[in-house]
Amino acid sequence: MQRILIDTDPGVDDALAILLALLSPELQIEALTTVCGNVPVTQGTENLLRILEVLDLAEFPLIAQGEAQPLVKPLVTAAHVHGDDGLGNISQLRNADGRPVYPPADTHISPTSGVDLILEMVTRYPDELTLVALGPLTNVAKAIRKDPVKMQRLQKIVVMGGVFEDYGNVTTTAEFNIFVDPHAAQEVFQSNVPIDIAPLDATHQVVLTGERLHAELDGRSDSISRFLKDATHACMEFYRQHVGFWGFHIHDALPIGMLTHPEYFESVAADVQVETEGVLTNGVTVSDLRPERRSPHPNAQVCIKVAADAFLDHFFQRLQ
Ligand code: RIB
Ligand code: CA
Hints:
The structure is a single chain. The chain is of the alpha/beta class. The protein has a single domain (2-319), classed as Inosine-uridine Nucleoside N-ribohydrolase, Chain A. It contains 13 helices and twelve strands. The strands form three sheets. The chain has an eight-stranded mixed β-sheet, with helices on both faces. Strands 7-8 form a two-stranded antiparallel ribbon. The radius of gyration is 18 Å and the shape is globular. The structure holds alpha-D-ribofuranose and calcium ion. Residues 9, 11, 14, 37-38, 134-135, 252 line the site of calcium ion (CA).
């Protein structure tokens, strides 16, 4: 069993990743921290509570709210992709009696900051804890700044972010999580903490079509199936209009799968740097992944190939 802390900017695909992690017996979620990204961090925290309410949890992981602004750049959000509330606008859904269909869980939010909860968890579980970063790396970078020695006791950081030999999803060349806070990403990648990266090169291989989602979920009335249909509707419509297919990429679910089923993923060692000064290239993750050009001083394992069908089948098996 692997102890993990999930740092997240929920976010529709974050929600799927969090549900998958909670339903993965291989993982013990010790804590969750929220960070600015898809939505402002206060909305992200409210969304996290909505996601946790979907499952009838006997007990909740520790939860703390993280940073509201990137290290240097002004915050850029993605409500146009994830819906105004960041979860497909499910916060507006009401039952016949007028009560919210998806109320936030009534559980304790730690008074400590997200950064301090990360450091507390590393202290409690030295050399045992994996940090799964599903949003911009602001919290992680600030934890490293605050106690770089302590953060070396992380087992590793698994990051959804970056793009190398594919197109970006924010600019032509940059992926959202890194683009939002490139300074944080550069500091994390140079921190000497072991890092696994699931870039768009990998997450674009796993396409959840609307047809597959409905084939799996139609006729099911359980809370997870209802949530998956309700929360993904807006995102899939965005993809239909702007990406060219009805469905979406379940980006953030891949780091969870990399922990529980590494056999579905192939990675290469790489030296990854992040452009923090460029105008057209801000947030670009730079690494030469050609076999003959790989760095003798790698700082990350970069996932380049996914057994996409097997992982999608696994995803639906776990969520049902
Ligand atoms: O580029 C995809 C990433 O950006 C995902 O983590 C998504 O949730 C957004 O945060
Ligand atoms: Ca995310």
